[in-house]
Amino acid sequence: MTFSLRARLLSAIVGAVVLVFICSLIAARVVLGHDLYALARTEVTSEASAFDGYVSARKQQVQLLVEQEASSEALRHALQTRDMGALSKELANTVTDANLSFLTAVDVNGRVLGRARAPAGGSLATDPLVQRALNGEDFGTMALLAMPFLRSEQLALQVGSQRSGLAIVAATPISNSQERTIGALFGGVLLNHSYDLVDEATRAMGGASALLDGDVIVSSSIVAPDGTRYIDARVPAAADAIRSGRPFV
């Protein structure tokens, strides 16, 4: 009977030790998980601010390139004389030198007179960005380019199954020697399946970077298991983060 009591007592002690160990393990994992979450959230938030700096710098660069081309005497002359061949050649040379995705010139009515990578024709008279330029404003911004525009610029394949393309764009008026607006220049960089920006950010900050259009990754430096880039994948939580303004981990 004494042995049985000791056995029960020993069993209770062992059980208590095991229970304490399990509770400690659970508590440690909860604390560790909380700390890692807090650290990840801080890192993501701070790196997002740094990444925004890279995007802002690229926007300024694109705007400067478009403004410089709009003030080119060769471009002005080609636009005024309606020399479509010379105009397209000038735009194509600029796109190649500046590593832009597209560059399009329109007249004061928004009619497309020249494109760098595609035939001229059509109209951008209803495009709000082009209208801002025709009204005398020059700017650089982020924009979603609609599929009809992407098709006209022969960029539709670059966005895959997406219905629009995420881009850094700039627009500026084109003026003659009397400072009268004779048209506008609209250009930019399509970021879908383009990796300069995410690679630059990754080299500077470490880790990996990605650009999302809504909840779809359109560009990233994340490496998939097969060695390719991780793109065109959905991240459902991203759309909630965009709507709420709160980061997610």
Q: Topology of this protein?
A:
Elements: H1 2-70, H2 73-81, H3 84-98, E1 102-107, E2 112-115, H4 128-134, E3 139-146, H5 147-152, E4 164-175, E5 181-190, H6 196-205, E6 210-213, E7 216-220, H7 236-244
Antiparallel strand pairs: 1-2, 1-5, 3-4, 4-5, 6-7
Outline the structure in words:
This protein has 7 helices and 7 strands; from the N terminus they run αααββαβαββαββα. α2 runs antiparallel to α3. The protein is α+β, with helices and mostly antiparallel strands. 28% of the residues are buried. It is elongated and about 110 Å long. A hairpin with a 2-residue loop joins β6 (210-213) and β7. The strands form 2 sheets. Strands 2-1-5-4-3 form a 5-stranded antiparallel sheet, sandwiched between helices. Strands 6-7 form a two-stranded antiparallel sheet. The chain starts with a helix and ends in a 5-residue tail after the last helix. Helices cover 50% and strands 20% of the residues. It has helices at 2-70, 73-81, 84-98, 128-134, 147-152, 196-205, 236-244, and strands at residues 102-107, 112-115, 139-146, 164-175, 181-190, 210-213, 216-220.
If strands are numbered along the chain, what order do they take across the biggest sheet? 2-1-5-4-3
Our measurement of the CA-to-CA distance between the termini, rounded to an integer number of angstroms, reads 58 Å
Helix content: 40-55%
**Helices and strands, in N-to-C order?**
HHHEEHEHEEHEEH
Radius of gyration: 28 Å
Keywords:
alpha+beta, elongated, five-stranded antiparallel beta sheet, 7 helices, 7 strands, 249 residues, single chain
Short recap of the structure:
This protein is of the alpha+beta class. Helix content is 50%, strand content 20%.
